[in-house]
Amino acid sequence: EVQVVESGGGLVQTGGSLRLSCAASGFSFDVDEYAIGWFRQAPGKEREAISGISNKDGATYYTDSVKGRFTISEDNAKNTVYLQMNSLKPEDTAVYYCAAREDYSGDYWYLESEYDYWGQGTQVTVSS
Fold this sequence. Notes:
By secondary structure, this protein is mostly beta strands.
């Protein structure tokens, strides 16, 4: 059974940094093709895609609002994807989710419907 678990959220001041982790089990980063997406949902807003990664060709993806501030990376040995978030702003406050799909190139990484497995979310709060 595939599972993904997020961690690393918390409270940080404007301009600070956090690193979120998405630990996957049930498939191997070393063996299987996969894509991982990071999404977030702020209070009163729809969930939005912010970043994705595919191990097919090492491609990484970012939405414009986080480009240059967030970095997605993978650690195959730990079966974990990270989202390093720098220069955080109050508008980054949201619940952050990671989602996974095996045997997927990630061509439509920004679509929630493309993913089979979701984590429970981790809260990120950026104070002004």
